[in-house]
Amino acid sequence: MRLVQISDCHLHADPWARSRAGFPLRQLEAVIEAARGARPDVVLVTGDVSQDETAASYRLAEQALSRLESPWFWLGGNHDQPALMADVRALHEEVDLNGWRLLLADTSVKGQAHGELGEKRLARLAERLGADERPTLLAMHHPPVAVGSAWLDQIGLHDREALWQTLAPFPQLKLILCGHIHQAFHARHALPGGDVTIYGCPSTTDQFLPGAEDFAVDEASRPGYRIVELQRGEWLTWVERVDL
Predict the structure, then answer these.
(1) Partners of 197 in the beta sheet?
(2) Is residue 96 left, alpha or beta, with left meaning phi > 0 and alpha meaning psi from -120 to 50?
(3) End-to-end CA gap in the chain
(4) β-bridge partners, 221
(5) Separation CA 65–CA 43 (nearest Å)
(6) Residue in 163, 214, 154, 208 with CA at minimum distance from that of residue 181
(7) pTM, whole model, 2 decimals?
(8) For a disulfide at 7, which of 13, 117, 135, 179, Cβ 3.0-4.6 Å?
């Protein structure tokens, strides 16, 4: 099972709108074309699909993503409007990946850049984890660990300790994929049932400079996506960059 992760597209209603480092829609289209060549079985978009939170930006995203020859799913980030997303394409809580499960968690907080799950969403996540013992991959927008950039860590997942307490009884959880940080990243978090590995993903548009104390764009990095090969309880993953 080959999964491709795409993240942080930051589209506008205007298809020719610029970002700091280019044209987000054109960059997304280039990433999608490259991802198609990787022949994924499923594609996951981990939030911040929109920058201006407009219905038109989601329609542009849907048109671009529909060029994929595989099923695709998305979740919202801090720049998104989930209701508008759902009007264009349904939001899912779970995707069957044959021997694996993919669970999607909403970490967005209305009007805020940081993320939070809260008691109700954490309880729902525990319920879903308890329903199946297959190896599980959890996707969310905000990273559940510090990433080493002061400004990004301030707007990360604020209730991450509560998340890890919720996840502790479920050794089937193996991987967490996140967006938000606009960079390749990996870390491990130890739980009683074994380590959980966390992976971040490049943006399809501007990249953030790793390790920066304050906001900084990584002008040397290119847009990209992550490939995850899922096997029998094991995985292999890497990042691909796209020339524009």
Answers:
(1) 175, 188
(2) beta
(3) 28
(4) none
(5) 9
(6) 208
(7) 0.96
(8) 179
Angle between helices 55-65 and 24-37 (to 10 degrees): 30
Residue 90 one-letter amino acid: A
Distance separating alpha carbons of residues 239 and 228, to the nearest angstrom: 9
Percent of the chain predicted with pLDDT > 90: 96
Using the predicted structure, report yes or no on whether residue 136 has a pLDDT greater than 90.
yes
Task: Count CA within 13 A, CB hemisphere, residue 151.
Answer: 12
As a three-state string, the secondary structure of the chain is: CEEEEECCCCECCCCCCCCCCCCHHHHHHHHHHHHHHCCCCEEEEECCCECCCCHHHHHHHHHHHCCCCCCEEEECCCCCCHHHHHHHCCCCCEEEECCEEEEECCCECCCCCCECCHHHHHHHHHHHHCCCCCCEEEEECCCCCCCCCHHHHHCCECCHHHHHHHHCCCCCEEEEEECCCCCCEEEEEEECCEEEEEEECCCCCCCECCCCCCCCECCCCCCEEEEEEECCCCEEEEEEECCC
Structure token pair of residue 188? 């491990």
Pairing label, strands 100-104, 2-6: unpaired
CA distance 101 to 130: 12
Residue in the block written with tokens 């695709």: 72
Burial 164-190 (b: 16+ CB within 10 A, else e): eebbeebebbbbbbbbbbbbbbebeee
> Quick one: pLDDT at residue 236?
98
pLDDT digits (tens, 9 = 90+) for 138-187: 999 999 999 999 999 999 999 999 999 999 999 999 999 999 999 999 99
Residue with tokens 């971040």: 200
